Amino acid sequence: MKMPVSTYVTTVPETTWLRWLPNSLPAAGYTTLKNSSEEPIEIAKIKSPDYKNVRIYETVVDSESSKMVKVDKVTIPAKGNFAMVPGRYHLMLENPIHVITPGDSAMVIFFLSTGRVLKLRMPVRTSPELS
Predict the structure, then answer these.
(1) Which of 68, 78, 95, 104 counts the highest number of beta carbons within 10 A?
(2) pLDDT, tens digit, for every residue of 6-15?
(3) What pTM did the predictor assign?
(4) 63 phi-psi bin (left φ>0, alpha ψ -120 to 50, beta other)
């Protein structure tokens, strides 16, 4: 069954990228999702044809350390944004299905509470300064 594409949730292209790490280590994905609707929209599920597992994590910092905590629920506020940026929220993409290297792109599919999807092609690079 083909899912309808979201018209309300979009991304900011210049914020979208995937940080590659060698030896099939997990990659981190960053983007800003924009919700133009009058209602909040939840991210119900995330999948990728390029990675076996995709989850959202938050980096939590206290006075002594920092750790990554899996986020079970994400809501993009009405007329608002949800930013995944280094040092805060990010996608954790684990177990690549094929070889992925800088210069490639990976597909991530966000399944939304509206029953629609947002398909996002993320350029792979080693740092945000590289294109």
Answers:
(1) 104
(2) 778 999 889 9
(3) 0.89
(4) alpha
